[in-house]
Amino acid sequence: MSPPAEYRPGAAVAWMLCAVAVLCLMDACLKQLSGHYPALQVAALRGLVGLPLVLAWAGATVGLRALLRVHWPLHLARGALGIAFLTCFVIGLRELPLSTAYAITFVGPLLVTALAVPLLRERVGPRRWAAIVVGLAGVLVVLRPGGEGVDTVGGMFVLLATACYAASVITVRMLAQRDSAQSLVFWFLAMVAVGAGLLAWPDWVPVRAQDAWLLAGVATFGTLGQIALTHAFRLGEASLVAPLEYTALLWVVVLDLALWQVLPDRMTWLGAAIIVASGLYLIRRERVVAGPRDADATRTPSA
Length: 303
Fold this sequence. Notes:
The protein has one domain. The protein is 76% helix and 0% strand. The protein has helices at residues 9-34, 39-61, 72-95, 98-105, 108-120, 126-143, 152-175, 181-200, 212-235, 238-241, 248-260, 266-297. Helix 1 crosses helix 3 (72-95), helix 2 crosses helix 9 (212-235) and helix 4 (98-105) runs antiparallel to helix 11. The longest helix is centred in the C-terminal third of the chain and has 32 residues, at 266-297. The two termini are 26 Å apart.
């Protein structure tokens, strides 16, 4: 496959690094909110506050009418997965350092590959299965079931969130061929806002005025992250920009230290290294097996 029409690898790398950074900042805001509000409410607020900026982005690019021309069944499934993903992730963030939660989420690409076998009928060879197994072993190193100083319950919620995210990515692969990135982001946020909002309503906690800046951060960083992701995947091949997602570990370590005065322990670093190494190998292996054309066609930014 020839490079994208606007192939600019340097700009693609810059956009991806920017996307990773601002999305880490968004998750830091979510972690702060998780200490004051129920997880479902935080998920609903994530969707609600982001909608105005995403509407503005869609109106300035593809037009608002494009948001209505979508494949509704898959969007509904993705919305349900999004509610589960955000709720479980917020619960995990409440209990774990940001860096530990991120180390677990790095297993996401491995789970996507595993789920693609039954759901997309993709073939995965023994080397990629081995990478998936090794990555899951890395998660066990991070969680250390039965070990001291580790909240395994919080880690299991993050792992469950990652599994829901992986299933959501499968729906994105199906939708990306027919729907715009703007519609994917808009309907994801809209369905999360409505669905999680209805579920959270019986236990809704009034939003405090002093948390307005956190909500503004969630909206701004979340939207900027999606715009940056879109530019990154438009200007560069997925095999170039996708591995840069792992730079998030550096950002969340800095945020953990600056905001909560915690650092990952040695076992978390070891588990994260195992997961990242497995993910990088998997990305390389998918490119070798599928070829540049297919490997890039199956990756697209998601909310």
